[in-house]
Amino acid sequence: MRIAYLIMVHKNPRLLKRAILTLNSANSGFFIHVDKKSNIKEFSTIHGGNVVFSKKRIPVYWGEFSQVKAILMLMQQAMEDPKPYDYFILISGSDYPLRSPKYIHTFLEKNRGFNFMDLIKMPAPGKPLSRINTLRYQSDKPIRRLAMRALAKIGLAQRDHRKYLGNLEPYSGGTWALTRDACQYIFDFVECNPHVTNYFQDTFAPDEAFFHTILGNSPFANRIKRGLYYTEWSGGAHPFIIDDRHVAFFEATEQILLTDMYGSGEVLFARKFSDGNIAILERVDKMIARF
Q1: Residue 69: CB partners within 8 Å, gap ≥ 6?
Q2: CA-CA distance, 266 to 254, in Å (whole number)?
Q3: I need a surface site. Which of 149, 212, 271, 273 has the fewest CB within 10 A?
Q4: Residue 13, preceding bond cis, omega within 30 degrees?
């Protein structure tokens, strides 16, 4: 079982270095995209035979299609690597594992062939159809972006996804761990359906709907399980920082099980950590050593 970690970062180099050291194994590879707006020199101490930084970097903006572009770049880079990876796990620079590489590999071996993705049909709590029906231009079109925001406030920036997506049912969700076959399906779909890509380019948070809509309407839909991430939302746009309260929950049992609108399942990673709370990782690492 080979695992490719697709990592999107713009800060937290200390956290990233520690996460890679914790996840590192003979059967793992790390493919990293550093936001072009960030200083890549901050990540210069991160290296290894299985660590690959994207030579091509793009500016990534929160809630915009640039996130999807960067993810597709990483996915392609990992798929083309001489090592034949079986699973492709997307993580960010604020994520950290909750279990050891051996535990993660064993878990995926037991569930080989399944994809792990928080997936729900839109509309859903926190996932309104307005996310994809409201026309939203990207940061590289600042004048159009401002004009469209003004129009959106008075309801004049609306589209009907059914007109553009046809029979595709819109889905949304969170971070994922996908099989090689599922990743290849995404690439094939993107190549054959450029109108879908064009539509999602002008939506809000497309990284939470683009991949999900493709796989939610695919032959892989019946082999998708709940995602592998623990996140506690604050009620706003960003999750809580992981603290001792959360770690106590993670330590309480060997299997960290969650049930929510995405279903029930085990989680192996958590978000959100940062270079500002590195101390909490000492406790997390002690927990990981137990499993």
Answers
A1: 58
A2: 10
A3: 149
A4: no
Coil, strand or helix: which one is 233? Answer: strand
Q: What is the distance between the alpha carbons of residues 225 and 208, in angstroms, rounded to a whole number?
A: 16
How do residues 220-260 score in pLDDT, each as one tens digit? Answer: 999 999 999 999 987 677 889 999 999 999 999 999 999 99
Could you identify the residue written with the tokens 């713009």? 10
Using CA atoms, how far apart are residues 74 and 178, in angstroms rounded to an integer? 13
How far apart are alpha carbons 11 and 61 in whole angstroms?
13
- Cβ(272)–Cβ(242) under 8 Å? yes
Is the CB of residue 256 less than 8 Å from the CB of residue 250?
Answer: yes
* pLDDT tens for each residue of 50-69: 999 999 999 999 999 999 99
For residue 192, give Cα distances in angstroms to 34, 50, 180, 195. 29, 32, 19, 9
* 8 A C-beta contact, residue 212 and residue 173: yes
Q: Tokens 């090592």 identify what position?
A: 83
Collapsing DSSP states into helix, strand and coil, what is residue 223?
helix
Q: 61 vs 34, 37, 76, 225, CA distance in Å?
A: 12, 9, 20, 28
**Cα–Cα distance, 289 to 101 (Å, whole number):** 10
Question: Residue type at 279?
Answer: A
Global confidence as pTM: 0.94
- Percentage of the chain beyond pLDDT 70 is 93
* Residue 21, both tokens: 């050291």
CA distance 126 to 231: 14
Contact status, residue 233 vs residue 240, Cβ threshold 8 Å = yes
DSSP 169: P
CA distance 47 to 30: 10
